[in-house]
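Workshop exercise sheet. Pairs work together: one partner reads the sequence aloud, the other fills in the structure field after running the prediction. Swap roles for the next sheet.
Pair: D.N. / O.F.
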Amino acid sequence: NSFPLIDMSPCAPDSSVVAHPNWKAIKVGARVCQDWLVYHTDMTGDWEIFRLGDLPDGLQADPNLSRGVGRRIYDLMPSRSPDEKWITFTSNRDGNWEIYISAVDEPDLQRVTYNTNAVDLDPVWSPTGEEIIYESNRSGTWQLYAFSVATGNEIQLTHSTGNNVNAFW
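Structure field:
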């Protein structure tokens, strides 16, 4: 199973409005010593997000954190919240490359971004757990966006004519 190709070229601006449900606030707790890792793998036949190591506080859960949904559904680019209770990742499970947040110990999954043609990639949690940063080509070039996991509000961080990618705290 080969690694999926993602078209990283800039696109025409994607200003379409896509209906989406109200955001259910996520509360991220205090930072803990990270003692397990998260990675993407094709061991199930499709690319999914897995955990390696034990969850905090003796929690038991499926190590398949993205809980993939079928053939040619790709879950990639994971990042873990500072309290180790959530992950964010990129997936094409709804027909377009979007950002998702999932609980680590239960099947609580929320879609963060809603586009028709634009691509959203590479989400990373902030050190406080209050937001995630990711890149999108929805404005026509690659720009960085911040998303508040408490409110569901999103703001564009960069506004340059160049491409801005791979943010890291």
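Discussion prompt: Strands lie at 37-41, 48-52, 75-80, 86-91, 98-103, 109-111, 120-125, 131-136, 143-148, 154-156. What would you look at next?
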